[in-house]
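hiii, so i know i said id send this last week but things got crazy w the move. better late than never?? heres the sequnce for the chain we talked about at the cafe, plus the structure i predicted for it. fair warning i was half asleep when i ran it
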Amino acid sequence: RKTWVNYDIKFTFNFASDTNKWKWYTNTGTGSWNDFGEKSPSKTTVSISGNGKRGIKYEVFDLAGNKRSCEGANEQWYIDKKPPTITYTPSKVQNNKTSVYEDKNNPGVTVTIKCTDTGGSGLSSNTYLGGSFTEYLPAGDYNRHYDFECTDNAGNRVWDTRTVSVSKWSRHSSCGTETYSCNCSSCYYGSNTCSGGYVYSGWSSSGYTCTTGKYGPSSCSSQNYSNDTSRRSCVSDQAMMNTECCCKTETRSRWWDDCKYGSNTCSYGCSTCTRNKTCFHYENNRG
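okay and structure toks below
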């Protein structure tokens, strides 16, 4: 037979004079033991705590190293230190009152009070109506007072007091609107007409090269390199039989701009949408 208690179990050990050391263990009914290590043989009190099934065993060693252990079915205890809970339906609770609103098409309400065990020992057989009570409250304008007690098999007890207010109400529906955001975009305001292209810096000279000859080399004529970041121009005065030709080299840098052509005036935003909803409005019929 299971015996439930709502407190920690304490054991006091006294040892014979030839005891050398001793050990003790506890478990939760799962088969594995929690070892608390070796102890010296002096008078000792230990406790088993927690909730649920608990077991204990111990081992005693004499000076010659002989061991004696004790464990058995009688060494099992059941601990429950959690009180039951009480719930009410309907559950509109404020300032220790449960307000019951009656519909004119349903004159009367039902209140259910229920006890629930939380620690494992189960509800006591002495709990009123087995822990569940239901009452029908007819239409009217009045208060109904309840005092309800629950006890579990470990002796934990809970008591609760509630007042249920019954009021006649009528109900009709009306329509309203609600708003919410939708269709959000990083380009909700403005527009983006950009396209990319290269951006160039100005030309800068990177040096001069001069050559001599009767009319200068045949390459001494104005020309551009095929590459658009470097160019060369050469000047020679062949009409004046100038034998010197001077060539100038220029360079420039470029970079890519994602929005070189057109413009981007985008900014983040959301459109506002509306939809209909049905609301319920209650009016008190008390005269």
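btw Residues 194 and 263 are 5 Å apart (CA to CA). thought thatd interest u
miss u guys!!
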